[in-house]
Structures are given as C-alpha cells and as structure tokens.
Amino acid sequence: MIRIERTNLNFERERLAVPFGFKGGFLSEIWQSIALLESDAGSRGVGLGVQSVLWSDPQVFAGRSEAAGNALMLLLTSHALETAEGRSFDSPLDLLDTLLPLTMEYGRQITRNPALRTTFALNSLVALDNAAWRLFAATNELSHFDDLIPHFARPALSHRHRNVISVPAVGYAMTTAQAVNLAETGHFLLKIKIGSDPAKDGDQAKMLDWDVARMRDLHSALKVFPNVRYYLDANGRYDGKARLLSLVDALDNCGALARTMLLEEPFPEDLKESVTDVPIRVAADESAHTDQDTAERIALGYGAIALKPAAKTLSMSFRMAQVAYAHGVPCFCADLTVNPVLVDWNKTFAARLAPLPGLEDGVLEANGHQNYRDWARMLSYHPCDGANWIAAKDGRFPLDETFYENSGGILLPMPHYESLV
Q: Which of 24, 92, 229, 260 maximizes the CB count within 10 A of its CB?
C-alpha cells in the first residue's frame, strides 16, 4: 500500500499562437497543471495535465469567461489532491475509483451544473493520475511503461510499432493553403474539425452549409495527393442522423467520402442513436468517458474508440482499451492540444495499440506543435528533448529502441515542472 502524505499543485498558462476553433468555440490559451503526490516513505510523483474546458464540457465554457472556466477546473484538481492526502492505494486505478465520484460531486457544486459531464472531472484528474502512476513506479522501482500496464489491459496493448502516424488538426481557422502544406510535408491523415457555428446563433442549417462548403474546398485542393485521407471530428455538434446523412451525401457528391476514414463524435452524448447505417467508421470520443460508456457506444455501432490518456487519465484509458479489445473494436489516441511531455504519454500508449483497419501503424493525433505560441520553449522541458522520436517526420513518429527503453521519457525526471511543486 502507498500512503499519500503530502500533495501540491501549481499551473502555467500557455498562450496559443492563434485562437484554436472547435465545438463552435475558440480557445486562446491552455492551462498546464502540475500535481505532486508524496508518500509517507518519501517517494514522489509529479504529473502533468492540460485543461480543456471547451472540450470536456462546453456548457461550463459557454457560461463564463475562458479564464473562469479554467479556474473552476483547477479547483477540482485542488480538491481531489486535498482529498487524496492521508489516503492509501495499491494501484492508481483504485485511487481513481475513490476520487472520481467525489470530484464529480464537488464539480457539480462549484459549477452549479447538476449535469456536469464526467469528462470535465476526468480532465481535472489527469495530472493527479499521472502523478500517482509515477509515484507507483518510484515506490516499486519500475522504470518501463510495460511494467505499469495492468494484466487485464496487456492483450489490448501488445503491439510495438516502429512508427506512429502523426495526425495534425485542421481547425476552423486553418486556410486551405495551410492544409495543403500539411499534405506537402508528408501528413496523410488529417483531422478536420467540422460543426462550426458561423453566425454564432446555433443554427444547425448554417452549420451544415459551412461544413459542406469547407469539405468541398478542402477536398478540391487535397485530392491531388492520392494518399491523403480525412478524419472528421464533429465534437458532438450534429443534432441527429438525418442532418449527418445530409453531410455524408454531400461528401459523396464532391468525392470526399471515399477519402474519409473516420467520423468522430457526431452527436451530443445524450443522443444515443445507432450509427450502424452510417457509411463511415464512426468513432466515440467525448461520449466514451469510461469503460461502461465505451461498451454502450460499441453496442450502438461505433466502430472505433478515441483514447486520451492525457485527457481522461491513463487509468481510465487502460480500462477503455480492454473493453474495446474484447469487442474487437480498434482504438487510436487523440490529442487535447497537450504539451510535449503529454504527447509522449499518448504516444507511448498509441505505440502499443493495434492499427486501425487499412493502416499498418498506430495512430496519434498531435497538434500542440501547430497551436502553442512557445512550443520550442516547451520542448526544452521534455526530459528527452532532441530525441529522434520527439518530432514527426513525413507524417510519422519514428520509434526506435531508445523510445521503448526510455518509455517516451514519461517516467524520467522533469526538472522544470518538478521545480514548480
């Protein structure tokens, strides 16, 4: 048993180069949370998180300023750390089981939102959960990620890819010329954000028209690259299958449908409608908060699951991966516009997942390098800054033995972040 003697919390505000648009809104900065767990035996674990209020609960984001929403999420992290003091755990999985319901209840109180999404609480717990895994590793003298994988999740994480496909994000504000540049530099799977609110009035018809025009323009420019494929992310913006199928028809008419590999999170999570008749592989992201939600979405015909160790905690991602594997449904890792260290928390996971049908490598969305104003400085905080596998080359992260020997650097000292707590 590991007994938590002391905790601490800090954060840094990182500006984005330009506002990043998705879910009908825009982010201008991302708060980086840093959590410390120290055991009564003197072992320490420092973990990182990034906060995305817009992604995790748009209602919290829409109802207040961007800074206020971030402050609320940070309060959840603080409350969870205070709650953890004096508690003991065998595994970080057990600690998450204890803290998640308590954090949800606190979150409902301070946001005054009884329907707070579970993802909001999970997002707030990422730094604590990562700290718990690092403390677990330090206490048990474990230095490799493979040693942390729970037995139940090992079949789902049994691959060892030599490459992971790097998927950049094409946000609302990205120009067609910039998307073409991504293809020219070797990226062949592009995550395109759809579901814009062009008039800021919530009009679904205007949203559909914008998406259709956007996809027509992008495909017209990208079709000259024969290997480029599309991964569309609606972030729960479509109000029903009829409107979604109108989009699919428009994609078919302009030739983009044949290039579309994935359609992620088309509906609000409370719209539990079968997608078995949608002629694209539909992936669940925000609606799959937990392993139970994952099973529910698979029963509705969802054919892929977006795993986010850096957004829904590593602990929950292990459980979700196992459920998807048991049902024969492939997984991939999606981003949260995370910092370089957390890119490798995701990458270390993605490197071990079975590839999506039609691909040979793992898949990882990574867009931090596109969006953070000071990405170069943030890279200097990575314990393996300069390693061959840090940056993508020709659309892939090349993974050599040093990547696996160092577990992507996720268990190594992080002097900058550790100095803050």
A: 92
Give Cα 299 to chain centroid, integer Å: 22
Alpha helix (H) residue ranges in 64-117: 66-84, 92-111
Helix axes 92-111, 66-84, angle to 10 degrees: 140
Number of H helices, E strands in the chain: 16, 14
Tens-place pLDDT, residues 279-334: 999 999 989 999 999 999 999 999 999 999 999 999 999 999 999 999 999 999 99
The residues with which 49 forms a beta bridge, in sequence order, are 33
Q: Is 23 left (phi over 0), alpha (psi -120 to 50) or beta?
A: left
- Range of the structural domain that residue 22 is part of: 2-143
412 Cβ contact list (under 8 Å, min separation 6): 383, 384, 406
The pLDDT value recorded for residue 23 is: 78
Q: Residue 410: how many CB atoms within 10 A of its CB?
A: 28
Long-range CB contact pairs, 212-215, < 8 A, 24+: 212/247, 212/250, 215/247, 215/250, 215/251, 215/254, 215/256
Indicate if 322 and 410 belong to the same structural domain. Answer: yes
Q: What is the pTM of this model?
A: 0.95
Q: How many domains does the chain fold into?
A: 2
Based on the fold, state whether residues 215 and 296 are members of the same structural domain. Answer: yes
pLDDT, tens only, 84-106: 999 999 999 999 999 999 999 99
Tens digits of residue pLDDT in 352-375: 999 999 999 999 999 999 999 999
Burial degree of 42 (CB within 10 A; 0-12, 13-18, 19+): exposed
Residue 262: CATH number of its domain: 3.20.20.120
| Rounded CA separation 236/379 (Å) | 32
CA geometry: angle 328, 329, 330, nearest 5 deg: 115
